[in-house]
Amino acid sequence: MMGRRETHLENLWEKAVSKGYKPGAHWSEDSKRDSTTYVPKTLKDQNGALKSYQKWVDIMETRRYATGKALSDH
Hints:
Elements: H1 2-18, H2 27-30, H3 40-67
């Protein structure tokens, strides 16, 4: 089975090279420091999810405070 897997990988590599694949061709663009790794929409979505979670925690804390138990007193 291992020999078959290696042959499969070799075939994929040969096919990629024959179609013009060049390893490391975009390395300089991909490895830039200080590049924005998240698009603004992703950040907006993450911030929205965090705000929703914080609202939920606040509601739960208020409910538990009203009953005499804090959220951290599980």
